[in-house]
From TrEMBL, chains A, B:
InterPro entries: PsdUridine_synth_cat_dom_sf, PsdUridine_synth_TruA, PsdUridine_synth_TruA_a/b_dom, PsdUridine_synth_TruA_C, TruA/RsuA/RluB/E/F_N. The active site is at D52. This is tRNA pseudouridine synthase A. Formation of pseudouridine at positions 38, 39 and 40 in the anticodon stem and loop of transfer RNAs. One of its GO terms (biological process) is tRNA pseudouridine synthesis. Homodimer. Keywords: Isomerase, tRNA processing. The keyword tRNA processing applies. The lineage of its organism: Bacteria, Bacillati, Bacillota, Clostridia, Lachnospirales. GO terms for molecular function: RNA binding; tRNA pseudouridine(38-40) synthase activity. Pfam families: PseudoU_synth_1 (PF01416). CDD domains: PseudoU_synth_EcTruA. Belongs to the tRNA pseudouridine synthase TruA family.
Length: 250, 250
């Protein structure tokens, strides 16, 4: 028996998110099915991040256990032969049997893309949020900086989340404009339900001039979802990658 | 009566190219239909570039004549309300009645995108050509430079083209690598059928080390399609834009 870690990229457009659910096809379900066919075992993967419907990933992480005698690094090739074009394993490797993708210290990086111009660009419609309202990136950058560090992010937590604590640490933020493309990058040790999308929606309101950058502090203090801006659309969001810290240092 | 020029962006994935044809839906056909509905007239647009099935555009150009009393610049807004999400007018403007998008001096810019890494990235699968064969961009750049200037591009002309002359001028070329993304940009005063895709396919063979960069000169001299490399897939190609030179200088 061995545990294999998969780094999974997907186009979330046609999926009801990552996690298996009764009302629609999910990335995890497709992965489980092809892994079960490949191994001849009943495989249920454990995922690191339960991305929402329409959210994309370059590097989500999942693990599974198998008795199949295939070297860990070969699973990427074998799976990519079977998976649909909108899911591609980027890497597979054997990990210790106690490696759990959620109960481990990790850093996740998310990217939210905004297309800010007069009219939408068809080839980017599934991978960025379009707005013609001119956004001031400098203001968004200032506002994002207020989010760095350890804070209670309850105001940025979507309804329906079941968590003990809404305290999280954002390690760094970056807001960049290249022509009419704005990219927001956030790295943190954990994110609440819809947190990056609510942050993105709030930063867009600040970029549009509806509130000054310092308004972020009031939102944090309010500890109330209604104090923050709208949840930005899923299509703009990509889970870029997850880095795990070493557990053992000998 | 006035003539209106449209700058049209589209995702070519789901179209049988630009030009109206009996065997499938085309961008021009969809445009004609919505323009006819909008104006209450029978509109047939004239396009600048007859892009192939699967090829994308950021700035193809089309003109049409109408008696509708709407200012030229308003057609973009009115059309975008009606068009499907994969076609978006970027600009509309009134032009002189004798403005013809093909019989005018113009410069076209095409971009061919290659994703060069171990495994494909699902979110880019419709907008770039994937290859895991490592490509040497410096060799591709040297090879591309040999194509600049006026040449007989018969070796780079797809079968079935009906043209009087296969002489064209390439104004400049650029081959750029950013991480695992390679972008080839070509600007010229006119392109033969499949020319940019055959150039891209040939440059990829040179980048892979199958031929030295100077081999491009032999291909040009051969004046034979068989001397060049394969036609690169349509999905990697985008018509970036068309710039028209002023006709009248007073």
């Amino acid at each position: 028996m061995k545990r294999v870690k998969l780094t999974v990229a997907y186009d979330g457009t046609n999926y009801c998110g990552w996690q298996v659910q009764p009302n629609g096809i999910t990335v995890q379900e497709v992965l489980n099915r092809h892994l079960s066919e490949l191994t001849g075992e009943t495989i249920e993967t454990i995922g690191a991040s339960r991305t929402d419907a329409g959210v994309h990933a370059l590097g989500n992480v999942a693990v599974f256990d198998t008795s199949m005698r295939m070297p860990g690094e070969k699973f990427s090739y074998a799976l990519n032969q079977r998976l649909p074009e909108d899911i591609r394993i980027q890497k597979s490797e054997e990990v210790p049997l106690d490696f759990h993708p959620r109960y481990r210290d990790s850093e996740k990086t998310y990217e939210y893309r905004i297309l800010n111009r007069r009219f939408p660009v068809p080839t980017e419609r599934f991978y960025s949020h379009f707005t013609y309202v001119p956004l001031d990136v400098e203001k968004m950058r200032q506002a994002a900086a207020f989010l760095e560090g350890e804070h209670d992010f309850q105001s940025f937590c979507g309804a329906g989340a079941q968590v003990k604590s809404t305290v999280r640490t954002i390690l760094d933020t970056e807001v960049k404009r290249e022509g009419d493309r704005i990219t927001l990058r956030i790295r943190g040790n954990g994110f609440l339900y819809n947190m990056v999308r609510i942050i993105s929606g709030t930063l867009m309101e600040i970029g549009a001039g509806n509130y000054p950058p310092e308004h972020i502090l009031e939102i944090l203090q309010a500890k109330n979802r209604k104090a923050a801006g709208p949840t930005a659309p899923a299509r703009g969001l990509t889970l870029v990658g997850i880095v795990y810290k070493e557990k053992e240092t000998l």
